[in-house]
Amino acid sequence: xxxxxxxxxxxxxxxxxxxxxxxxxxxxxxxxxxxxxxxxxxxxxxxxxxxxxxxxxxxxxxxxxxxxxxxxxxxxxxxxxxxxxxxxxxxxxxxxxxxxxxxxxxxxxxxxxxxxxxxxxxxxxxxxxxxxxxxxxxxxxxxxxxxxxxxxxxxxxxxxxxxxxxxxxxxxxxxxxxxxxxxxxxxxxxxxxxxxxxxxxxxxxxxxxxxxxxxxxxxxxxxxxxxxxxxxxxxxxxxxxxxxxxxxxxxxxxxxxxxxxxxxxxxxxxxxxxxxxxxxxxxxxxxxxxxxxxxxxxxxxxxxxxxxxxxxxxxxxxxxxxxxxxxxxxxxxxxxxxxxxxxxxxxxxxxxxxxxxxxxxxxxxxxxxxxxxxxxxxxxxxxxxxxxxxxxxxxxxxxxxxxxxxxxxxxxxxxxxxxxxxxxxxxxxxxxxxxxxxxxxxxxxxxxx
Length: 449
Fold this sequence. Notes:
Layout: H1 3-12, H2 23-31, E1 40-45, H3 50-63, E2 68-71, E3 83-85, E4 88-89, H4 92-109, H5 111-114, H6 119-133, E5 138-142, E6 159-162, H7 170-173, H8 177-184, E7 194-196, H9 201-213, E8 218-219, E9 223-228, E10 242-247, E11 251-256, H10 262-279, H11 286-294, E12 303-307, E13 310-313, H12 319-330, E14 340-344, H13 352-356, E15 365-368, H14 379-392, E16 400-402, H15 406-414, E17 422-426, H16 429-440
Parallel strand pairs: 1-5, 1-6, 2-5, 6-7, 7-8, 13-17, 14-15, 14-17, 15-16
Antiparallel strand pairs: 2-3, 3-4, 9-10, 10-11, 12-13
Helix pairs in contact: 3-10, 3-11, 4-6, 8-9
């Protein structure tokens, strides 16, 4: 198979949908002699923040000299971004070879499973095989959806973490915070330490009860306060790192080159995970932590790709993410020295009103669009909802433009934007990925989803 044919084969599995249960994944991994047990692992769940936390932990472990696998989703430009070793994406050749190996084994030994396995189950198996084949020391594994029935939940980690819990993916996880917490808490393993920075009382109660039943030590994370901040306004360079003073088992002053107040909490979570790994014998020095966090890279999360005019991309894909973006934007260009543009494309299964509300006050013109994915909401519907929200708050001047695809949305803004203006692109990682490809001249590779 070529790389194009391989990617096409992988995404054809999306027609199998998302089905709860670990039976298919259990069978798949058994066919390959449990590759997920060939390396140590860290398992991270949560509604938001798990990708940032995973990137921080991986960066520090790499700084400490370990060979580190990192499995995250989704990708922005190329499928290979999901599976990395020491920040280097898996090669196209390895994707082709491992896909062929998995496909041939399934079709020969379990043809029924080959016709039922989901895209995420197959790609998780591919990642585990790759990490085992490449003999990583530790793999940092981000949960895809929920926790209890997620394809990643067959690892036996050194430490598990639940970053935060908000309402999202209700059709799969439940419609209340408590129901979703039960699903996320499903990653808690027998006697495996757990780090959690979830804050709601009902969530904490569920996590504590599950940890008690599993005899899993529930670690108390330290406290982090900003030592200095890059969150002010454009008069303060947005590229300055967040500086934190952290007090836990040890005290640290750390810098993280990520934007947004929410990264304070994610940094705290990552330091709690690292302290647990230190307690279990991994050699991670204070210098490893300080220098590793300085090297964290995270695309598509409050990522600045151009400074004049300022273009910021954030894959906020649920109400909690939109609120975090809105809080950041409140402190961005408060003098309103330029026009504030917003390009947004949202998935149809999201609460569109809850995602647009936090961005209304900052935005001067809304350019609503849709990425090339069947699940994307009609931009006309997003426009109708946005107009109703603006009407409700008494805003008579409604600057809403509808563009049917991301490229035309960008072309519309680029034809009018001035150097002092600001453009934010958000609503979905799919929207951000297409926009980044268009703006940087590196279009998303082949079929995405």
